Amino acid sequence: MGNAGKGTSANSLAGELTGITQKQLDKKFKHAADFGITTTKKNPETFGQYETAIKNHMGDSATKPQGTYGFVKDSKVFFNSSTNNAVVLDSSGNFVTGFKLTPGTAQYDNYMKNGVLR
């Protein structure tokens, strides 16, 4: 895999993402709006837009590895403090979920304090 030639410049986090399945995109499509997807219609085109948005998140220089996801053992959370979006990958680098965190909420505060996203 790697990220050579993918236009991710200095950020090597794009290489952390090794897989996104259609099934997982479908399951988590309710969060697509958090990544700028403006439609709720599920089809190959919108799944593609969502996948691209997740990859763009991982390639963004403001996205940093930060903590774990409490529901998936050995997961990694990649948080972007500019957008407040988080993407969760399992230990193999597969997309689990991704969504926006809202500052001031218990979820956000707990994650910032303890490094565990729930």
Automatic annotation (TrEMBL):
UniProt-recorded name of the protein: Colicin D
Species the sequence originates in: Snodgrassella alvi SCGC AB-598-J21
Superkingdom of source: Bacteria
Pfam families: Colicin_D
Colicin D C-terminal domain segment(s): 24-106
GO molecular function: RNA nuclease activity
